[in-house]
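Let's practice the habit of predicting before peeking. Look at the sequence and jot down your guess about where helices and strands might fall. Then scroll down.
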Amino acid sequence: MKASNFLQLKIYRRTFLIYLFIVIVFFFFIISNRYKNARLAGQQLFSEHMDRAFSQAEDELDGVIGTIDNFLIRLNSSPVLKKDFFYFFGATPAEYTAARLRSGDMAYESYLSACDNLVTDSDYLIRYILYYCEENIMCMEYSPEGYSRCRRIEPEEGEALGRTGYVYSRDIYRDSVYRGKISFILDVAVPIERAFCQQGDIAVWLELQGVGRRLGDALDGDVEFGGITESGRHSGLLPLTDWKTGKYFYAVNASENYSYLVVAAGKAGEYMRTRIKELWVLFFGLLLVFLLITILYIRQFSADGRFLQEILRSVECARNGSFRQIRVGRRRDEYAVIAMQLNGLYEYLETLIQQKYELTISQQRTQMQMLSSQLNPHFLYNTLERIRLRALRVHNTELAQATANLGLLYRNIVKTEPIITLEKEIAITRQYLDLMCFLYDDQFLYHCDVKEELLGIQTPKIWMQPIMENFFKHNFREDESIKIIVLTGEKCGEETRLTFFDNMGNIPEEQLEYLNGCFTPEKGKRDEEGRGGIGLQNVYHRLWLYYGDKVTMTIRNNEPSGVCIEVLLRDCTDTTCEVSSQAVMEHFLGKGED
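Done guessing? Here is the structure:
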């Protein structure tokens, strides 16, 4: 039988499928929960890295603002620089150069060189310096390579330049008179890209004053930042509609000081690598445990299934009349108990069937041995009937009655069913005793005293008559004394006692001991098979074949004279103490009534 054949049994199939369902649900719950935790941990790690990058960018911008403030303080504290600044402020480059020549300050540090130093100190984050005065707007433009140029621009262009970066403005006063303002436009993208894009494969979306642009190309444009919802920008939760969302982690940082929004995206696998390794270890560990448990269950279920199918095949064979013993082996579970009970039942049924068979054979032999010859029964009945009629013609009613009793006795012996009630068996025995009364006239008397409650007990036929015949065969003496035989029957607790005794003589103690030793199943069977007799051993064997161990038989001397034979039946009901094999089998297979 294959290991998977246990699934053919409903009890194991249902149990195994429930087990698999629970295992799969539990496995899915554990793995999904741990994967969720791994994603949360990866998201948290990514957010921490982006927070550090954001802080780095903020610090860099704060440093530039500090450098500008120091520059302005130095400008106000240096009369030469301040004077040169006002030469430059509101003038054209030609006017500024002419003013310096007239003042004779060419040997001193100029404002323009100070601005160049400021831009260099800011790491070229200052891209534009705008000078707003009443007449015009002057723009100092600086490239990342350090080149600069000065030109006059229109207000609209000044506004457009202000949207390209963070604008840091200061008002300009001269002798407490407002002269205009100066604005430093910082390139925010440079520190953002420097801080975020150096963290690895990171894509950055920078939104400044309503204008957004992508920084870096580490992810090759694979992330669609346009799917970020407005609520996600403020909460940090970015539910993108694109199918690629699950591949990336997102972090949102908004600067209150510099009015920009940074959305960073990074590959989820990079930040979940450690947790994913742990998850794989857990996955294969749980899978191995579940596989081992499942293999153990399959092995146990297969063994139980094979044993259960062997039990079912044994029961099927028993239904067909073949009792096959079940090999229990080393099993000690409930199935083994059932198998051992079945084996015991099979042994009992085989014994019972054998007893029934032997009882039938024994009764047939007894019937034949009771007939002194192989005469045709109908011929015997007809002959006895003619003798009875002839006796009536000569008015010998006693002889006629005796002849009728003899014919009736033989008819009951031959035609009666093998199993009869105790009442019927006593009636047959009385017919025999009536014949003995006729034969011995006034020398013989008998008395029957059996309780009415015992008359319904089922019993084999023709076993009391051989006991009575044994009294006449071995104890009867031809003298003038009155011979008496008494049959009594009574209920003693759970036992039924039938006693046969006479007053015809005693038996030596040695012979009594020998006879009592012969009332065993083995010796009774040998007596039946060896001599074919119908003596006391044969009577006991026939009773044992029917009642089994519930019957005992003893013989003893009856004081002051005579012999007493006692038959004791245990646990007999009012109707029968036999359990037929068919009734037992039907009850065990669920077809009989309880």
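How did you do? Residues 86 and 174 are 9 Å apart (CA to CA).
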